[in-house]
Amino acid sequence: MRHRLLVILFAVAALLSGPVLALAPQARAHNSLFASDPADGAHVTGPLTRVLLGFLDPPSGDSTFAVVAPSGERVDDSLATEPQPFGGYTVTLGLKPLSEVGRYTVKYFTVSLDGFPLSGEISFTYTGSAEAPGGTGSGVKSGSRVPLTALLAAPLLLLGAMFVVIVARRRASATPANGPTKLASCPRCGETVTPDQGFCVQCGAPRR
After folding, report:
1. Can you name the residues that pair with 35 across neighbouring β-strands?
2. N or C end of the chain, less CB within 10 A?
3. 0.90 cut: is pTM over it?
4. Count of domains in the chain?
């Protein structure tokens, strides 16, 4: 009788613990993304050199990761995986210098330890300054600056204008105020006599 009671108790315990033991490994076997930096939907205002993805399991050999710019160009250039001290694995995606402002998409695909595929994406918005290489980031547009050649040519243009004015004044002073020189005729012989001649060179008659 006592032996039969022990058998019944073991049977009940097995029935109660069986579903729990069957479900626990299955719930843990599937991989999942539990964290990211930047977080999904975040707005990034400063420089960004990498994206971190936290998974429960290490990525599989056929895993793929990509960071896509607003224009559709990929900006990820390196991949590293590090185990975490309290469980999980962090995938680090190195980034090229971000040259576009807008929404970036992080896409991932991996396979969990039980063969279950895991894929998805997160996104963040980059609002930092998209500068060309060598830019100063001062916010001054290049089109608003005065070219150096214009600054150097300004004194030459001023000297040229002063020279034109001086030459014009000298020409005006060299011209008689009464206009062109008027010629006269000798009253005796009719020879042409200029104003600077006091007498006619032909007949000697004085000029009137």
Report:
1. 54
2. N
3. no
4. 2
Per-residue b or e along 173-194, where b marks 16 or more CB atoms closer than 10 Å to that residue's CB: eeeeeeeeeeeeebeeeeeebe
DSSP helix/strand/coil, 153? helix
CA proximity to 112, closest of 28, 24, 31: 31
* Structural domain contains residue 19: no
Q: Are both 196 and 117 inside the same structural domain?
A: no
120 within a domain of the structure (yes/no): yes
**Nearest to residue 99, comparing CAs of 134, 123, 133?**
133
Domain extent, residue 197, equals: 182-208
Q: For residue range 142-180, list pLDDT tens digits in order.
A: 344 445 455 556 666 766 667 666 666 766 555 554 555
Q: Among 96, 126, 156, where does a domain finish? A: 126
* 2 is a domain residue: no
